[in-house]
Amino acid sequence: MEKILDIITAKMQQAFAAAGYDASFGRVTVSNRPDLCEYQCNGALSAAKQYKCAPIQIANAVVAQLDAGDYDLVEAVMPGFINLKLSGAFLQKYLEEMRTAPDFGAEKIGVGQTIVVDYGGANVAKPLHIGHLRPAIIGEALKRLYKFLGYNTIGDIHLGDWGLQMGLIIAELQERQPELPYFDPDFTGEYPKEPPFTLSELEEIYPTASSKKTDSVFAEKAHTATYELQQGRAGYRAIWNHIMGISLPDLRRVYDHLDVYYEKWLGESDADPYIPAMVSDLKARGLAVESEGALVIPVAEETDKKEIPPCILVKSDGSSIYATTDLATMVQRMRDWQPDKMLYITDKRQNLHFEQVFRAAKKGCIVNAETELEHVGHGTMNGADGKPFKTRDGGVLRLEQLIKDMTDFVRAKVVENKIVDADEVESTTAKIALAALKYGDLSNQPTKDYNFDLERFAAFEGNTGPYILYTIVRIKSILAKYGAWENLPIAAPANPFAKDLMLSITKFSPTLESALRTSSPNLICAYIYELAGCVNKFYHETRILGEEDETKKAGYIALIGLAKNILETCIHILGFSAPEKM
Ligand code: ARG
Question: What is the DSSP string of 273-317?
């Protein structure tokens, strides 16, 4: 569906032309004086310079050409602004079209395009911690937004499953159980099916091994083990398989809990086979060059304000690094999916890494010249006091613990307020807790840091996820009392509150498009907060179910029904859902 701004801009341009002025002056914007009007056009002011006359003269002539039926207010005011308020009839027609169009008339701007969203970035054998919350939540929301607007989306977790942590675990295991067949280079039998450790043992082995990195002998062993694993040493590969077999289901469980789902569970290891050919190709084409024993791709550009170091491809000891796997992953993605775009969501401390990798990928023709590469570097989630989030003993808080803390807090409220029957406490609690957590995060601009405040995020009032859910639940209960409402047509606004609500509804698709263009799910949060506010204001100022005029009542119901559907669509994009009762 065409956007309102585009419709009224086109009409304004026609009016300029009909009045004898250049149509290009007819651009309409959302009013910056909502107390005076809803939309405005300032074109007469610029036109006056070209036509050398008073702006108000032009504004008056243009206004005379506009179709009065479209507007409740259309006036030229000094020195030459054109102020507009849409008519009820215009809004009624527009909303009725939205109501009956697929996905409320949102334009499918991504049809025919494929995007890979690389988000989450969990590291195998290490439990997810709070640092993994933001990329998972933001990435999932952006992916769903792209999907909603018509893109073919492929979410890939890009597991860290090929690095030093694997070598550390192998080295530690060897110290503990050197007799295991995995360590015997001459072993030719079949390795045991049963892993030599459980999940909780693994969770202890890794941090122990990691703390021994300062011991140079142990560190050397871990590096060698990592290298040999990458070279394909069978026993180490078998341990790697055990680690994956234990770790992945655990990661999946936590992501499921967050309603974060990946189309692909590929990792750095899957990129490994593409490295040798990629490296020799870059070398052959003279793009990768030797520098201090390493092989690098110089990526500095003349216009750089700060120094951008070369992208290291192969270290002097022959091993590949993070950038190597990221480039090789692009090779795999281009080969298998030919995406038009790759979008990465990670901590903003990786900004430089992606700058280097993107430049290297373009320079090395690993991606096409027109393949869009975007990195969203998100800020840090701090504690309520604004300081880095730490457990009481100074450790890193596990993501599961954070989810549990939020869930416990919400459950206590649900139980205390007797919101639902005992058998629904858990499912209702889970939905509210997820909304609190995700909205608390997503309502901030991704690049900014924010403070995690459990009580504030979980409040049922204010700019929170639960408040949005509460509004949806409230509408649902009115609709349920009314009965069948799905086919009721939209009516003209019955009062100013209805009109505000209708105007807010029309911003649905422009909001989604700008959220996509700027990678800002926070715009969707701000939008639904405004929309929910309009719904609640309308509800407080209007007798809905008590209205005796059935036609009027049906109009009210149709309007709040549409508002509910839009709110639910938006929270689905953000990655949470509403319970039946609250
Ligand atoms: N595993 C990485 C980390 O923990 C994040 C991966 C992000 N994605 C990527 N393609 N580099 O920092």
Answer: GGHHHHHHHHHHTT-SEEETTEEEE----TT-SS--PPEEEE-TT
Read off the pLDDT of each residue in 521-539 and give the average, rounded to a whole number: 98
pLDDT (tens digit per residue) in 374-388? 999 999 999 988 888
Q: Is the CB of 140 under 6 A from ligand 1?
A: no
378-388 residues labelled b (16+ CB within 10 A) or e (exposed): bbbbbeeeeee
Q: Ligand 1, atom 12: nearest CA belongs to which residue?
A: 121
Ligand 1 in contact with 123 (CB < 6 A)? yes
3-state SS record for 55-96: HHHHHHHHHHHCCHHHEEEEEEECCCEEEEEECHHHHHHHHH
For 531-549, write each residue's pLDDT tens digit.
999 999 999 999 999 999 9
pLDDT 10s digits, 466-507:
999 999 999 999 999 999 999 999 999 999 999 999 999 999
In whole angstroms, what is the distance from residue 319 CA to residue 298 CA? Answer: 19
pLDDT confidence of residue 534? 98
Which of 130, 143, 158, 322, when mutated, tests ligand 1's pocket best, judged by the most ligand atoms within 8 Å of its CB? 158
The Cβ of residue 415 has, within 10 Å, a number of other Cβ atoms equal to 13
Asked whether the beta carbons of 87 and 70 are under 8 A apart, the reply is yes
The structure tokens listed for 528 are 């639904």
- Report DSSP letters for 170-197, one per residue: HHHHHHH-TTSGGG-TT--SPPPSS-SS
Q: What is the pLDDT of residue 380?
A: 95
CB of residue 521 inside a 6 A radius of ligand 1: no
pLDDT score recorded for residue 115 = 98
Nearest CA to ligand 1 atom 4: 121
Closest residue CA from atom 8 of ligand 1: 121
pTM given for the model? 0.95
